[in-house]
Amino acid sequence: MTASEKRSASRKRSVNRELVELAALFFATGIADLFVSTLSNNRVGPVLLFALGGLFVVAATLRHHWSHRTPRSGPPGQGAAIEWRLRATVRDVPGSLAALTATLAAHRYDIASMQVLTAPDGAVDEFLLRAPEGTTGAEIAEAARSGGGENVWVVRADAHDLVDLPTRMLALAAQAAGTASDVAQLLGALLGQSCTVQRKTGGRPRDERVTGTVMLLHGRPGEFLEIRRPLLPFTLAEFARAKALLRVHLAAAAPSACSVPGDSGER
Predict the structure, then answer these.
(1) Which class in CATH covers the domain with range 81-157?
(2) 175 — phi, psi (to 5°)?
(3) Nearest 5°: phi and psi at 155?
(4) What is the dihedral of CA 30, 36, 38, 40, to 10 degrees?
(5) What gap in Å lies between CA 165 and CA 101, rounded to an integer?
(6) What are the residue ranges spanned by the domains of the chain?
(7) Rounded-to-integer distance, Cα 58 and Cα 65, Å
(8) What is the pLDDT of residues 122-156, one digit of tens each?
(9) Edge-to-edge, what's the strand order for the sheet holding 209-211?
(10) Which of 86, 223, 240, 266 could form a disulfide with 127 if both were Cys (CB 3.0 to 4.6 A apart)?
(11) Tell me, what DSSP letter sits at residue 135?
């Protein structure tokens, strides 16, 4: 379409719109004249007009006060947000994550953070939710299942879950590099304070594995670590993070392979 044709079409639409507006004005004028003529032949006509005017004034006043009202503050603790940790497996197809998050939003669960972990049978989505006070884990699990989630696990969030993952991992790596750090405390800070760590003798590095709520890691020579976390199973991503953190700690705790004479600063 050329520029002249576009201007012609725009001019036609403008003329049509003006004709429709003019017709609406005539219709409104005719209806108003008919209304006034009908009331003029009736004694209650003026009273009805005054009543309608007063009703409109009252409605406008109430609307003004309603729109400028001060929100009421509920009793202490009412509506307070409680953090929950939700993990669910969804099908690895487009739209699965959107359906799950939409369902959580419909139940007024605020998603504070989220990470997606790959799994052999789909994708594992882990959420940090803020739910109103009084919400139970069973209610959150039911909402996740209705949104397409499977293998749903819901537990109360620990304090370390409120920190974003990269910052937490850097802080743990710095702590693991210290010789005075404790392995159980490091793994608890990484995997949750509900974890228990038991040291066992024997085991080989190739025996490291994760099965449900149990994780096996190779520690110092001749030592094996058995980590258990009730309720919430471990993921392969957590297994890899724990192994990397343990390697940093063991490398820092190992004695130096060689020493350089005169390393006291003398020249």
Answers:
(1) alpha beta
(2) -70, -40
(3) -140, 160
(4) -150
(5) 20
(6) 12-59, 81-157, 165-253
(7) 11
(8) 678 888 898 888 889 899 999 999 998 888 888 88
(9) 196-201, 223-228, 214-218, 209-211
(10) 86
(11) -
Backbone angles phi, psi at 219, to 5 degrees: -100, -130
Whole-angstrom distance, CA of residue 237 vs CA of residue 251: 21
Alpha-carbon distance of 133 to 19, in angstroms, equals: 59
Encoding tokens for residue 125? 């989505």
Q: What residues does 228 pair with on adjacent strands?
A: 196, 214
Cα(176)–Cα(216) distance, integer angstroms: 19
- The closest of 102, 105, 99, 157 to 126, measured between CA atoms, is 157
106-115 long-range Cβ contacts below 8 angstroms, 24+ apart? 106/143, 107/139, 107/140, 107/143, 108/132, 109/84, 109/135, 109/140, 109/143, 110/81, 112/83, 112/162, 113/164, 115/165
pLDDT in tens, 189-233: 888 777 888 888 876 667 788 888 899 988 887 788 889 988 778
Residue 35 has pLDDT above 60, yes or no: yes
Structure tokens that stand for 124 in this block: 């594992």
In whole angstroms, give the CA distance from residue 156 to residue 175.
25
